[in-house]
Structures are given as C-alpha cells and as structure tokens.
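Q: What structure does this chain adopt?
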Amino acid sequence: MNDCIVIIPTYNEIENIESIVRAVLSQHKPFHLLIIDDNSPDFTANKVIALQEEFPDRLFLEKRAKKSGLGTAYVHGFKWALERKYNYIFEMDADFSHNPNDLEKLFDACHFGGADLAIGSRYVTGVNVVNWPLSRVLMSYFASVYVKFITGMKIHDATAGFVCYKREVLEKINLNKIKFVGYAFQIEMKYRTYCAKFEITEVPIIFTDRTKGVSKMSNAIIKEAILGVISLRLKKLVNTL
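A:
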C-alpha cells in the first residue's frame, strides 16, 4: 500500500477539481488522494466519482452532508487516513494556490530530512505570493508575525494550509479536541504539534492565488483566527490545551 495520502477539502470546486486530481495523481511519486466534499451544490463530488473509474485504487471520496468548515473536514480526513495506516498525510487546497509539484518537497523534508511536520511556507525566504492584492499579503504576513509573538513558535507561515504530517503527530494530537474550523485550525494544528515537541520545518514554496472559483475567506474566519491564537496560548499557560 502507498504510504502517502493527500487530503483536499472541497466546496464548489467544479472548475478546479478534475485538473487538481490529475495534477496530484500524475506526480512521479504515486500519491493517493482523498477528497472531502461538503455536499457541493455544483456537484464537485459527482466529478470525483466519475474520475474514480480512471483512478480506482488511488482516488477516494468522503462526501459530508453539509458545509461544516475546513477544520472539521481535515479532522475527518486525518481519522480516515490513520485508520488506513498512511504514514505521511498531506493537506492542500483544490484551487492550485499550492503547486502539486511541491508535494515531493514536503515528503522529502519528512522522510529524509527528519521533520515531523513540513510546512509549505510562503514567508520563510521572503514573501513568495503571486496575484494577491497588497492588502491580502500584508494581512497574511502580519498574521503570522502576530502568531509568532503570541505563541512563541518560530514559524514564519503559521496560517499555511500546504503541509505534510507524519502519522505519529496526528496519533499524538487528540483530534477530538481540535476547536477551530476556519484558518485558525491551521494555527491550532501547528501549535499543538509544537507543544508536543515534534520537529517542524518550513519548505519555501511560491503561493499563487486561485484563478477559478471563489475564495472561502470571510470576516468571521479572520476574527476566529485573531481571537483563537490568544485562546490557545491561555489554554497552554493553564495546562488545558
């Protein structure tokens, strides 16, 4: 059995789904791919089902009843992957903001480089973001500065959603205690990994904003991330994380 599974949550990604599936499954390393679809009204899941005929042993689909948030989708996928004994578990977006060609870089950082969590980082070597307005770049960059200041983590891109976990990390973290569902989920996972004393490394990537489909960012997600960081730090200080 293959030891690597890429998890992609989807909601209304019909414009991107076939291309991203083919791009991930055409890599030199034979990754497996799990799509977690939140009952997309545009029938994203139906396209995945059609593609499963072409990739029956490598493409998997979990269809949920309704849109329930990024964090719960990934936790669902993590549990699915752990039950099936995958050793390297990846997160990435469906919209090509994360380049599938960088998957092997993250794998190498964990398999050969000794990392327990490898982060595809936009900011570890400067600002490597394409097609974002300056306001969005500044918000994202200073969000990571803020997270670093509050938590003490030496991570340049704390909100990154392109990562590879060794299974031992996800086995150690109590996934049932994960609280956040938006982009704060990404911070929470990294902070729990950091607090558990696992080795974290950042791999430089170039992040390119989506050209098809609609961003899921909202003011509620931003608020959750800002307040969530403080909540995580306080829980750590009183030993309730």
